[in-house]
Design brief:
two-stranded antiparallel sheet, globular, 40% helix, 11 strands, alpha+beta, 5-stranded mixed sheet, single chain
């Protein structure tokens, strides 16, 4: 059973637009038959594949450390990179400033960096987190990456709910493989790569605070959240062993019920409680508003926010139908700019 959430909000992690692109039957048949029977329907059974536990992070302890670049080499590359962007006078001033830096505090700072990097696999990792999480501007537009998937080769499977259910099951199978450590390590030129980030892909949220954001994670998350027509729903999809408890058909039925239920509330009524718009604010402002929502006496706002924050991911069933690539991209970034009777649709 899916369970509706009261007034809460989330950052949309997965958008599924309700389009049904036209494709020729012959082309669809050719593309489909290029795959084996197993590849065409790898998730037909809810039974998990044979276990290969322990391989995902097996190479972590043997990964090479990220080397600290030579100071003189870094300065030289810096000057070369600026050359085409500067006038001759500006470039001369830059060279003078860099040379002065090398003669003065440059070597001292380089030694401090080497000391800081002792015992760390990557000297830059924490700096990256700090710069990413302390960015104060709204996440929308500024920090909202996305990508578009190709249509399913079978036209009938491009129905919104069918496609969404298929992607959900695929994502959950990936979650299972990561948590059971069955996912083989990524490699580059036969060298295993760091797999740590995969453990933070799901059940993870960017939580705003007064002093920058923090990464919140529920490593035991078992549910997903569905956002439809401005209303929030959730249901469990994994058991205690991180195995799937639903087939693609089960998920599809749940999503159909959610869409039907969401349609019962007029969009203008749902918009009155659309607190998700608050997340488009400056991060400090949004943090303060979250605190106000959570302190609302007698409400379950805090519990609802926690359900969204701890979800494996959020699935958005958009009810708009973008017709061009540009419209699709705009919808992924910040929704549409169409307003009807005072409500953004």
């Amino acid at each position: 059973m899916s369970k509706p959430l009261d007034r809460t909000l989330a950052s949309a992690d997965a958008h599924i637009s309700d389009n049904d692109p036209k494709r020729s039957e012959a082309k669809a048949k050719d593309e489909t038959q290029a795959f084996s029977k197993t590849e065409q329907n790898p998730l037909a059974s809810h039974k998990p594949p044979p276990s290969k536990a322990g391989i995902t992070f097996a190479a972590q302890d043997n990964l090479p450390k990220l080397p600290i670049p030579d100071l003189e080499g870094s300065c030289r590359k810096y000057i070369e990179a600026l050359d085409p962007l500067q006038t001759a006078r500006e470039h001369h001033d830059t060279e003078a400033a860099v040379n002065e830096f090398l003669r003065s505090e440059g070597q001292e700072l380089q030694e401090k960096l080497k000391k800081y990097a002792t015992g760390k696999s990557s000297y830059i990792e924490q700096f990256w987190y700090d710069s990413y999480l302390n960015f104060d501007n709204p996440v929308v537009l500024n920090l909202n990456p996305f990508f578009l998937l190709e249509d399913d080769p079978t036209p009938a499977r491009n129905n919104q709910v069918t496609r969404a259910a298929s992607l959900v099951i695929s994502a959950l199978s990936f979650v299972r493989a990561v948590r059971k450590e069955e996912l083989p390590p990524d490699t580059l030129r036969n060298q295993p790569l760091d797999m740590y980030q995969y453990s933070r892909m799901f059940g993870t949220a960017r939580i705003p605070t007064e002093h920058g954001c923090q990464i919140g994670q529920d490593s035991a998350s078992k549910h997903l959240v569905v956002l439809c027509r401005g209303q929030f729903y959730w249901f469990d999809v994994l058991d205690e062993n991180n195995d799937l408890i639903m087939t693609e058909k089960d998920v599809s039925l749940n999503l159909q019920v959610i869409v039907k239920d969401a349609e019962q509330t007029p969009i203008h009524e749902a918009a009155k409680g659309a607190v998700g718009v608050l997340s488009t604010e400056n991060r400090k402002t949004w943090s303060g508003l979250r605190d106000v929502l959570s302190r609302d006496e007698g409400s379950n706002n805090a519990d609802c926010l926690d359900i969204v924050d701890s979800a494996l991911f959020v699935l958005c069933l958009d009810y708009t139908e973008p017709t061009t690539g540009a419209d699709l991209c705009m919808n992924m970034l910040c929704g549409t700019s169409e307003v009807e009777r005072g409500v953004q649709i």
